[in-house]
Amino acid sequence: MGVEIRVEGLTKSFGSQLIWSDVTLTLPAGEISVMLGPSGTGKSVFLKTLVGLLKPEKGSIWINDRDLTTLREHDLYEVRKLFGVLFQDDQCGQAARGPEPSGGNGRGQ
User: Fold this and answer.
1) Who's near 75: CB < 8 A, 6+ residues apart?
2) Residues 33, 27: contact at Cβ < 8 Å?
3) What is the pTM for the complete model shown?
4) For the chain, how big is the Rg over CA atoms in Å?
């Protein structure tokens, strides 16, 4: 169950700010992997890059013998179905709901 993910020489930056450089690793199929680190060290950026939400400057991400960094949007969508992502600060949900009413707790109370 699951798929192997192979990352080779991955580099990501935002403008002149280097986030991480030359990351190479393999996440074996069927195993649970954990990424730990302090705030601001690029963990969320790495995960977003891993599922194709962000594009790296260099390197490859191999899933099922396909390099995500070269896939068209339609093909990338098919690969994304292999992942479940829950953003830590509810970025998507907040955007869909709109701003919280003044004095409310977000539950209509």
Assistant:
1) 66
2) yes
3) 0.74
4) 17
- Cα–Cα–Cα angle for 32, 34, 73, rounded to 5 degrees: 80
Domain definitions of the chain by residue range: 5-97
Q: For 14-56, what is each residue's pLDDT tens digit?
A: 999 999 999 999 999 988 888 899 988 999 899 999 988 899 9
Whether 98 has a pLDDT exceeding 90, the answer reads no
Top-level class of domain 5-97: alpha beta
Q: What is the mean pLDDT of the chain?
A: 84
**Cα–Cα distance measured from residue 82 to residue 23, given in angstroms and rounded to the nearest whole number:** 22
Alpha-carbon distance 45 to 99, whole Å? 25
CB 83 within 8 A of CB 51: yes
CA–CA dist 15, 103 (Å, integer): 38
